[in-house]
Amino acid sequence: MIIELRKKSQITIPKEIVDSLSLQEGDHLDINLKNGVIHIEPVAIYSKRYIERLEKTVMRIQEEPTKYSNGPFTSIEDMIKSLEDEELEKKDK
Fold first, then answer.
1. Domain-located, residue 1
2. How many domains does the chain have?
3. Residues 6+ apart with CB under 8 A from 73
4. Considering only CA atoms, which of 75, 74, 73, 80 is closest in space to residue 55?
5. Reduced to 3 states, what is the DSSP secondary structure of residue 11?
6. For residue 21, what are the CA distances in angstroms to 2, 5, 26, 40?
7. Residue 89 and which of 33, 52, 60, 68 are 20 to 30 A apart at CA?
8. d(CA 1, CA 61)
């Protein structure tokens, strides 16, 4: 596909590509140059706090995988909530 570079260095991503990647307005894209080729990749942006909680959750599961048999989860948020609920239950006992 050939596209045109417009004023202020803007380009339009063809609709077929947007649809095939399920991109929406407001999504973030990482753009970089490798060996003279422009690469554009969809990325997700999360807060540092969220990433830290996710890392702690994954570490707990790796340390004691048999202890965490709930699931499957439909999202990372569901998994974290389940583990947080387990922690609250332990504190209540």
1. no
2. 2
3. 79, 82
4. 80
5. coil
6. 18, 22, 14, 12
7. 52
8. 45
Residue 64 sits at φ, ψ, to 5 deg, of -140, 70
Domain span at residue 71? 48-92
Q: Are 75 and 46 spatial neighbours (Cβ–Cβ below 8 Å)? A: no
Residue 2 lies in a domain: no
Collapsing DSSP to helix, strand or coil, 87 comes out as: helix
Q: What is the pLDDT of residues 38-89, one digit of tens each?
A: 999 999 888 898 888 888 888 877 777 667 666 667 777 777 777 777 777 7
- How crowded is residue 37: how many other Cβ atoms within 10 Å of its Cβ? 7
Q: Look at the chain and count its residues.
A: 93
Q: Which of 48, 44, 14, 17 is nearest to 29 (CA)?
A: 44
Task: Looking at the structure, tell me whether residues 56 and 86 fall in a common domain.
Answer: yes
Q: Tell me: do 17 and 37 sit in the same domain.
A: yes
- pTM for this one? 0.55
